[in-house]
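All the exercises in this workshop are built on plain-text protein records. Sequence and backbone structure share a record, each on its own labelled line. The structure tokens are whole numbers drawn from a learned vocabulary of backbone shapes. The record below serves as our worked example for the rest of this section.
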Amino acid sequence: MTKKHWTALAAAAGLTLAGGTALSQTAPTPTLAPGAPPATVAVPAAPSLTLTVAAPSEIQIDAMATGADAQLVLLLNGSTVLEDSDGGDGVNARIITFVTPGTYEVQVWEWRGGAMTANVSAMVLPPLTPAATIVPGAPPASVNAPAGDSNRASSAEVTLTIATAGNYTIDAVGPATGCDSQLVIVAQNAEVARDSDSGDANNARWTGPLTPGTYGVRVFDWINRACTIAVSATPAP
């Protein structure tokens, strides 16, 4: 496979997004000269784009192609942060994740290694609107997590206010059947913790230290089904 397979990649070059996020395409070209040391190259070389993040954000990256199966990988300092195959519409790729400020690399390719023209975009996602508020020791709040095509789309979020530093247990309890509760704790546009099955049966439970402040607790079903989930927080030893 040669570079010509990737030259038609359409990227949001220089696009400045809300929150100071920009996506631009980079195409470093190795230089060869008679008698010079060898150049090390990766073959085949997937198109590489640079994603610059200025502030903690929750971002969505899409790679969309017609008649092809786009794949995505997000990397930081050469290490994979997240990858996706079919998280977008149809067989398009989509990554949704929290990121810290820095310069990231976005790689795109076609699943079968064929030629592809893809549109690649990135955007900062707005905060979710809280469905309820909980405080430690209070009765659980029941929220309706909707069906969706991603964890975020199928999430309901409650606001958790912590007044005193300490250890806390957060539970997400769904019905006995037809739901596998998950939880993610977020604060200041960053993921603090997550859990899948540490509670009873298929319920989620997380125990750990929290400092005073306001947190969001997102709850959803493992396979993004609609589900009513009871969310609570209690002080822990």
Q: What stands out?
A: Confidence is low (pLDDT under 50) at residues 1-20. The first strand starts at residue 10 and ends at 11.
